[in-house]
Design the sequence.
């Protein structure tokens, strides 16, 4: 059985849009047996997670390739059956070629500040890229330690 895949890529000026939540349009590419057989550009009109999810689902996209994306929107798209590949950057044509050939995981297509294995980025707000708090695991699997102010030892008069 031959399966045609619809790949949506959020785009801005020929590149992957840096933030899907506010992206203006999508490139929808139809891929069959590793070859693009059709494409169209679609304006994104939804402004909230529900509207954007509905629009992408109505386009019958199997995969969404995008830059940054909010957690609620990513979860809504995943729940609607869309595989989301976030934190992607580069020229849309290069990204599409890399996806079709199975090379999208290469570091060249990962947004700056993001780490391929950790699934997180530096400099983000909230839990993404923050340092672990006391007792949480850091990136090396160890619990972090908090330092006491003043640098003294207990019981030594400090």
Sequence:
């Amino acid at each position: 059985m031959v399966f045609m895949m619809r790949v949506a890529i959020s785009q801005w000026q020929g590149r992957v849009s840096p933030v899907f939540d506010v992206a203006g349009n999508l490139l929808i590419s139809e891929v069959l047996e590793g070859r693009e057989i059709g494409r169209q550009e679609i304006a994104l009109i939804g402004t909230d997670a529900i509207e954007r999810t509905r629009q992408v689902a109505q386009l019958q996209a199997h995969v969404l390739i995008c830059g940054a994306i909010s957690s609620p929107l990513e979860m809504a798209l995943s729940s609607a059956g869309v595989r989301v590949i976030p934190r992607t950057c580069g020229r849309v044509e290069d990204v599409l070629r890399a996806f079709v050939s199975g090379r999208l995981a290469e570091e060249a297509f990962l947004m700056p500040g993001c780490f391929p294995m950790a699934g997180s980025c530096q400099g983000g707000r909230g839990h993404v890229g923050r340092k672990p708090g006391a007792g949480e695991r850091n990136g090396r699997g160890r619990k972090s330690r908090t330092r006491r102010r003043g640098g003294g030892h207990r019981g030594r008069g400090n």
In short: The chain has two domains: 4-111, 113-143. The longest strand covers residues 4-12.
